[in-house]
Amino acid sequence: MKHFYLLCLTLCFTFLSFSQFNPGAPWMSQFSQQDIKSNKIKFQDITDAFNSYWQTRDPMAKGSGYKPFKRWENYWKSYVNQDGYLPSKAFLWQTLQDKNQMSSARSTKAVSNWQLMGPFSHTNTGSWSSGQGRVNVLVVDPNNPNTSKDLESNMFYFYPNPTGGDITVKLPKPSDFNVFISDVTGKVIIRAADFSSTDQLVVPMKGLAAGLYFLSIEFLDGQKVTKKLIKK
User: Fold this and answer.
1) Looking at the structure, do residues 16 and 92 belong to the same domain, yes or no?
2) Which of 139, 142, 143 is nearest to 154 (CA)?
3) CA-to-CA distance for 33 and 3, rounded, in angstroms?
4) What span, in angstroms and rounded, lies between the C-alpha atoms of 156 and 225?
């Protein structure tokens, strides 16, 4: 039933959009009715005929058809195909069928392994809900020895990227780590830090040619995280 209502709504919206277009308008007189019905007139040719017609007329005249056409033009200009024609009714119908088929084939089964951590109840204050079980931000607590090293290592960042010179590597807290810059073949170009305990490190890049590189951080326990780096 839901898909039926969606189909009706889509067809109604398309009909209303097309209804702004009047094939019997005076600026359409240069085209044959057969070409109009069979969609053999390019969108640009229609708008050119319209603009030419209104060069010597008042577009603000009541009931002139100027505004409905401009609404039609503004809506359909984004749907013109690569050959310059508007999509046919058959094409629109097939597109809707393909969309419905993709929607029905899409799996709605959850694939995550999230576990409820609470709170499992809360009190609304006023007319708004404070939310329940919503995660907006993840932050590593530098004072918590139980902080996951996996989470910590993936939270490192560096800037600027792309870079024209040096880059700065930042970690959420001082750690023993090493930094490698390698090219697309995997060859290590730069090695820095040597497991020094810090939360920030500047790596020189000025001598490298422009292109794609990979920045890797290796921690003392053997964990390694790699991210893309672009040299301008």
Assistant:
1) yes
2) 139
3) 35
4) 9
Residue 46 structural domain: 2-104
The number of distinct structural domains making up the chain is: 2
Choose among 55, 49, 52, 51: nearest CA to 28: 49
Place of tokens 């800037």: 159
Q: For residue 13, what are the CA distances in angstroms to 8, 17, 66, 98, 183?
A: 9, 6, 21, 18, 53
Query: What CATH number does the domain containing 172 carry?
Result: 2.60.40.1930
CB 18 within 8 A of CB 68: no
State both tokens at 183: 């090219």
Query: Looking at the domain assignment, is residue 15 inside a domain?
Result: yes
Shortest CA distance to 170 belongs to which of 182, 180, 155, 181? 155
pLDDT in tens, 8-58: 544 444 444 444 577 888 888 888 888 888 888 898 999 999 999 989 888
> Would 137 be classed as within a structural domain?
no
